[in-house]
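Translate sequence into structure tokens.
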Amino acid sequence: MKPVIGNWYRIQGGESFEIVAIDDDDGTIELQYFDGTVEEMDIEDWRAEKENGALEEIEPPEDWTGSVDVDPEEDDARGTSGYGEDDDRRQSASKLEGLDLFE
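Result follows.
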């Protein structure tokens, strides 16, 4: 079982984690646990855990918000709040009329 970025795994008796980066030059794998904690693991340690049968690939959690620190209620509230026209929090882009890119 080769580590794949974006896949979720668990080492027997431990927490689930996602592979977020692989550095072949350094021989390391970057793991991110559900709570957002990031940790590095040597590829040799990955292989050892795999050979011992302690490493398993798992389904990603249904609630992805744990690792990105987003409260689902806050996310829903932002989408339905409907900021007013005079509210500085609303985002808008100004028109770039009259802009000459070749000047």
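Note: The mean pLDDT is 79.
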